[in-house]
Amino acid sequence: MPRLHLAYALSRGLLPVVMVKEYAWCPTIPWIIANKLVEPPPTPSMLKGLREHRSRDVLKRVAKMMGYKRPEIEKHVVDRRRRVYGVVDILAPREQELVEVKIRATRLGRHQLAQLKVYALLAWSNGYRVKRAHIATLKGALETLEVDQRTLLEAEDLVEKTWKAVESPDPPPVCQPVEKCGYCRYARLCPNRAC
Q1: Distances in Å between the alpha carbon of 40 and those of 3, 37, 46, 189?
Q2: Backbone region of residue 50 per phi and psi (left: phi > 0; alpha: psi in -120 to 50; beta: other values)
Q3: Domain membership flag for residue 48
Q4: What does the alpha-carbon distance between residue 91 and residue 5 come to, in Å, rounded to a whole number?
Q5: What own/partner pairs with CB < 8 Å and gap ≥ 24 does 29-33 have?
Q6: Domain of 125: which CATH number?
Q7: Is 11 in a helix, a strand, or coil?
Q8: How far apart are CA 73 and CA 21, in angstroms?
Q9: Domain of 58, in residue numbers
């Protein structure tokens, strides 16, 4: 989903999965997007990744590399009860797996694992009983997450916390390390920066 439409998606009553990823990075970011209705422009590396990633050929290549038979590429999934949606890069129903493809990832953070957990939750809520979720690059899987009841409960909790932050009139009381704020694209808009 184009990142420039996050506030619009929220206005329609749906939380994009990427907002949960942002919440896991810093709980103030989804609040800024929802309450200031602004997003900074994408960085050059984000644009490059978006151009390369949006090629369905890239996703098909990764699916083939993973050995999937009849994968679903860019599968839109919605959970109306939890009010969250996303687009799973590769969903492999036969293999009971899903894949989030990262073009430029070299190391992973917990925010990317949070995103993966919510994709697994969305897959389950749409009838896809995934057992494994992967973050992969063109070179292969970087991280594999075994999907179990605990994973799904953690994803539900993340969605609830993100909604709570987004719907609050006040920013979450968060104080991040100065170094982290130093390269945050939202720093100039952040009410918590001076903590």
Answers
A1: 10, 10, 12, 9
A2: alpha
A3: yes
A4: 24
A5: 29/184, 29/186, 30/162, 30/165, 30/166, 31/165, 31/166, 31/168, 31/171, 31/172, 32/171, 32/186, 32/189, 32/190, 33/6, 33/7, 33/166
A6: 3.90.320
A7: helix
A8: 21
A9: 3-189
**Which pair of structure tokens corresponds to residue 24?**
């896991």
**Which backbone phi and psi does 108 adopt, to 5 degrees?**
-110, 150
Rounded Cα gap, residues 179 and 26, in angstroms: 13
Task: Give the residue from 145, 54, 65, 68 showing the smallest Cα distance to 103.
Answer: 54
User: pLDDT tens-digit profile of 28-57?
Assistant: 999 998 888 776 666 666 676 666 656 788
Is residue 43, in this structure, part of any structural domain at all? yes
Report whether 45 contacts 71 (CB < 8 A): no
In the chain, the number of structural domains is: 1
**C-alpha to C-alpha distance for 40 and 178, rounded to whole angstroms:** 20
- DSSP code at position 135: E
User: 72 pairs with which residues across the strands?
Assistant: 91
In a domain, 194, yes or no: no
The answer as to whether 61 is a domain residue is yes
For each of the chain's 195 residues, which pLDDT tens digit applies? Answer: 334 456 556 667 899 999 999 999 999 999 998 888 776 666 666 676 666 656 788 899 999 999 999 999 999 999 999 999 999 999 999 999 999 998 776 667 889 999 999 999 999 999 999 999 999 987 776 889 999 999 999 999 999 999 999 999 999 998 888 888 888 888 888 888 767
